UniProtKB/TrEMBL annotation:
This is Potassium-transporting ATPase ATP-binding subunit. Belongs to the cation transport ATPase (P-type) (TC 3.A.3) family. Type IA subfamily. It comes from the Bacteria. It comes from Synechococcus elongatus (strain ATCC 33912 / PCC 7942 / FACHB-805) (Anacystis nidulans R2). Its EC number is 7.2.2.6. Keywords: ATP-binding, Cell inner membrane, Cell membrane, Ion transport, Magnesium, Membrane, Metal-binding, Nucleotide-binding, Phosphoprotein, Potassium, Potassium transport, Translocase, Transmembrane, Transmembrane helix, Transport. It catalyses: K(+)(out) + ATP + H2O = K(+)(in) + ADP + phosphate + H(+). It is a multi-pass membrane protein. Residues 1-21 have a biased composition (Basic residues).
Amino acid sequence: MSVLSRHHRAPGGPRSQRRHLAQPQRQGLYRRAFFEAFRKLDPRQVVRNPVMFVVWLGTVLTFLLVLDPGLFGSSNEPGARSFNALICLTLFLTVWFANAAEAIAEGRGKAQADALRATQTQTLARRLTAGGTVESVNSPELRKGDRVVVAAGEMIPADGEVIAGVASVDESAITGESAPVLKEAGSDVASSVTGGTRVISDQLTIQITSEPGKGFIDRMIQLVEGAKRSKTPNEIALTVLLAVLTQIFLIAIATLSPIATYLGSPTPVATLIALLVALIPTTIGGLLSAIGIAGMDRVAQFNVIATSGRAVEACGDINTLVLDKTGTITLGNRLADSFISLAGRSPADVARAAWIASYFDNTPEGKSIVRLAESQLGQLDFDWPSTTGIDFSARTRMSGTDTSDGQEFRKGAVDAIKGFARSRGGSIPADLDAAFEQISRLGGTPLAVCIDSEIYGVIYLKDIIKTGIRERFDQLRRMGIRTVMLTGDNHLTASVIAAEAGVDDFIAEATPEDKIAVIQAEQSQGKLVAMTGDGTNDAPALAQANVGLAMNSGTQAAKEAANMVDLDSDPTKLIDVVTIGKQLLITRGALTTFSIANDVAKYFAILPALFINAGLAPLNVMGLATPRSALLAAMLYNALIIPALIPLALKGVKFRPLTANELLQRNLLIYGLGGLIAPFLAIKAIDSVIVRSGIL
Ligand SMILES: Nc1ncnc2c1ncn2[C@@H]1O[C@H](COP(=O)(O)OP(=O)(O)OP(=O)(O)O)[C@@H](O)[C@H]1O
Ligand SMILES: [K+]
Ligand SMILES: [Mg+2]
């Protein structure tokens, strides 16, 4: 027989950001955003953002005051018209800059969608008919359940599950990874295929799993384009808060007018509008949606596709991270290293029993056992036609081969094989426990091998902890996130790996039901749980978790159940995604703090200047030239701070692995204090430029 070697992806993968899609054409992006920002001035769009809608109304009112400075009974002082025009212009710029921020964020998503769409070429598919013949159809005509044959050089016409054949597939169109991936039927990690990828050797029979237009790539396109984008719960809460603040300031300004009149310094309407806009949280109001869109985009740049912005945000709130051992914490190619014989058997006896017990086992473990046995024993003979394979299941934790004359070859977790041998009336070799311990203490997985009631020996499956994983767990701990390793492996192996990798907790000998139970237990304590997995047996747990990251190489079931899919099939990406989610929340918090601190500072910067006539001049500590120059400087600062902060909103604030409390303190210090000081310096500077330029 031929043993196919799997092409394992470079474990861990590059940590750095890696764009799999075409870099958006910067120039085209900004040109599109420029025009889009005008289109977004449509009041039906602006009204969705209450803060900006107030500024928009202010723009219209001040424009009317340009046409007729005496409108609303305002005193028609000299120079009022040109002052109103300048205020109107700054208000307009404020709304336009906010629109531009959103348009740039959306544009980056659109560029990704275009790159994805390019992979969606129509192809001719060869569909199998009920009669077993082959007919040619266009790929959009394929329905869920159809079966197609795809040969070397042909494109896979739609998403599906391999039901026959083994072939290597070039998935670079969606993953950017140039190494071909081996696909075959009946495997948890290699049976699902994606439309738009290309078969490069051999032939596959594929059962289609998605209706036209509902495939994986279609959903990705809708998401990055923002067609399905809806505000996340946190975003809605913040929008409401900003609207309430806006209302409070509206009332404050309305009551200011009579006071000013009483003090003998009646305030013109344009001044009141400007004062209002200076006070309401325009900075965060203008950048809020760009921050959210950019978060989705950053996740996509990591080759992770999220099904909603809510999922990305939930990542930022995660308290517990549930990871499996094999492939996530360890390299995953858990390969047979050696055979240990027991009870006086010869090593060749063990190798032969292990070879037969693994012959039908398609898992990487099974294949590596066959390879090791053949390398030790050379060509072996056995009467295969009269045998049946017994598949591995996570519940029995065994697999094997039955012969027609009633012999049962089994291999599996040591306690599972002990139970099996006992059930067939056998006894347990005295040296089994020593072999079990020896392997487990190395962090390896021991598999016992038996024929019927006789345990022959132990297979040492070697697994290596990924480099750098310990540092990542340390980082997570500093963020206050608890890591739990869940494994089907025995307690001793699990404890060795857990200690070496530095996870906070571990659960060994876990069945699929245990995985759900662990997640539910955490959730019942009010914790938000993220989990990563690839197998069909992980699907229920992925669905139960608040954030479920499925591997693209995993089964369709796991991908459907998850709310995120990693195209590179690197389970440690979950750590990156949590970081991005946290960064999204922190960015929003930091800019909200900055925005509100700014508004408070602006208030104290410009209010005294307004009361110069009323004898409050001594309060004008900043020495601003005139009330008008003070107001105009404040308005210009208010408008310009939005584009100044666009890069930060899109890139996210610099992230440090700290707990929520430490981050809050840090942000209050940097963005709160910075937000209080910046307006004084900037307004003073702009004020002197205005005075020197003589525009007022
Ligand atoms: N192909 C196989 N044949 C027989 N037994 C196996 C096979 N693969 C694994 N086992 C045994 O079953 C146990 C459970 O394996 P499984 O792959 O379900 O673990 P898991 O729950 O996915 O956890 P993890 O992947 O983190 O180790 C393993 O520890 C091993 O003892
Ligand atoms: K403001
Ligand atoms: Mg597993």
